Amino acid sequence: MTPDWVFDERDRAFMEAALEEASAAAARGEVPVGCVVVRDGEIIARAGNRREGSHDPAGHAELLALRTAGERCGDWRLTGATMYVTLEPCPMCAAACRQARLDLLVWGAEDPLLGACGSVVDLAQDPRLGPPLAHRGGLLAEDSRRLLRSFFARSRAPS
Predict the structure, then answer these.
(1) Residues annotated as catalytic (active site), given as ranges
(2) Contacts for 77 with CB less than 8 Å, ≥ 6 apart
């Protein structure tokens, strides 16, 4: 995990925007993961998980935000962009971030089950997959964990 002092107020503001997307996902009955893609200091894409509502196994916040960013920029190569996501990406999303050529990935809470940026595997840095994806984890991690814990406690509570 990256020390908190590495992040600045802009990083925190962008992660807050990702947390808003995660909260909106939870309100829709989705696992609360949110994401924003930023380029030149502006949010160019935002998304929350939509797997349940769209019946799409690839309806992860990161993939949805990457699609929107690519459409908005007119290019699948998102050089110069940073992604802020509330949960450490899974292998599918970490690979997509590398493919998109993001400059930086900033994530909140570690994912001890599927984390692909160092918690379980490190697909972001694996040299066999081409140029590495720079990433930093731990930004507003407790806020992300709190959302996830609350969501799963409600979903597992007896009716």
Answers:
(1) 62
(2) 100, 101
Task: Please give the Cα distance from 41 to 49 (Å, whole number).
Answer: 23
Report the C-alpha gap between 64 and 47 in whole angstroms. 6
Evaluate whether 86 touches 54 at the Cβ level (below 8 Å): no
User: Strand 135-137 vs strand 81-87: parallel, antiparallel, or unpaired?
Assistant: unpaired
Beta strands in the chain (DSSP E): 34-39, 42-48, 81-87, 104-109, 135-137
**Amino acid identity for residue 93 in this structure:** C
Going from the first residue of the chain to its last (159 residues), give the mean pLDDT of each consecutive group of 10, the final group possibly shorter.
86 98 97 98 98 97 98 97 98 97 98 97 93 95 97 82
Query: Rounded distance, CA 69 to CA 148, Å?
Result: 25
